[in-house]
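Bug #2210: token dump truncated for Tripartite motif-containing protein 72?
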Amino acid sequence: MSAAPRLLYQELSCPLCLQLFDAPVTLECGHSFCRACLGRVGGEPAADGTVPCPSCQAPTRPQVLSTNQQLARLVEGLAQVPQGHCEEHLDPLSIYCEQDRVLVCGVCASLGSHRGHRLLPAAEAHARLKTQLPQQKLQLQEACTRKEKSVAVLEHQLVEAEETVQQFRGAVGEQLGKMRLFLDALEGSLNREAERVWSEAGVAIRRELAGLNSYLEQLRQMEKVLDEVADKPQTEFLMKYCLVTSRLQKVLAESPPPARLDIQLPVISDDFKFQVWKKMFRALMPALEELTFDPSSAHPSLVVSAGGRRVECMEQKAPPAGEDTRQFDKAVAVVAQQLLSGGEHYWEVEVGDKPRWALGVMAAEAPRRGRLHATPSQGLWLLGLRDGKVLEAHVEAKEPRALRAPERLPTRVGIYLSFGDGVLAFYDASDTDALTLLFAFHERLPGPVYPFFDVCWHDKGKNAQPLQLACPEEGEA
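Reproduced locally. Full output below:
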């Protein structure tokens, strides 16, 4: 078969079934296929009714395609050539050209475009290539297996993507729902305050209005009397005039001062919105974790209250630590009984005016014996106060990082932990309506942690103040 007829045969063959076109259709992208082949591999239509082109993935609408009559006629003409014969010389296809990988006739092999190529008799080529068929099938099966794995991975990713989106929507709904509840409650509270102010103001204004109307009526009565006196005889005029003017001076002297009401309501300004945001930020924190100190972990100098929410350092000499490796023997510290291993957590610690302390979390596997190295690489993520004036973060460095001095030192510290986001944040929680960020670690914790509390040495009574855990219902410590 010469190059030109062979090229024509290739051009008139469907790239899917590798046979001459049967009812060919041409897509918008220019590629052509048998109508049946396109329907078989096109898959389920997308929402807009399109399927991807098998060759270039361009979208097309098979239902609106009509048969390409020109291609169909060409295929019909090519089909008239006897099967197994050269289209150009009409001789049997008896020679296999290894170079071009095609069957040709004897004329094409000896005199035509395949002259000088590597040629084999068709029977020998058939026997040789048939032995290669299993290898070709194996390669095809391996390719199918790889693609099936790719399909499985993509399908899994599709499920994961859907789950991620659903989780995101759920989180959005949950968080915005909390915001709406907070704003609805705040709106109700402000409206009730406005109603109270209006009620009180209304009573005061009506009282003032009644007094002014009564006084105004007196003035009108005096005016009426003056009009009546004007036409009286001399003696009666003088008698009544003196009486009326004397009364008038008294009434004028008793004139009530103008009313001045001071309506005390919040000003809806940018600052008001900022204050609302701060209150909402605190309200959206997870509920206070109900933590208790673990007495078995406490340094011998520490005394934990019966309720487990208060700890302080004794000034008298304490006995040495026991053999229990869960107990701190050098650091004057204690951990909570609760082990945190996932999700979000928030707790608050009352530090008062205690001049030295450190708070944070400790890896469950971190050692407690001996001198502690307060760095994240050693399983401690801490914020502390030194000498009653310097807040410092115990970052991965030779010395703790001193933080910018706040306007006031916190008397209560809030600690927020999110395992999912990799955040450990410390807040000044002294204001019941707002939280002020002091410092945050941004790293994913390697595993479960215990809330950690370094009470520090009592320093001959200078640092004897206790640490106290806040709870949702403040009560027995």
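Output looks complete on our side. The chain has three domains: 1-80, 125-254, 287-469. Marking as cannot-reproduce; reopen if the truncation happens again.
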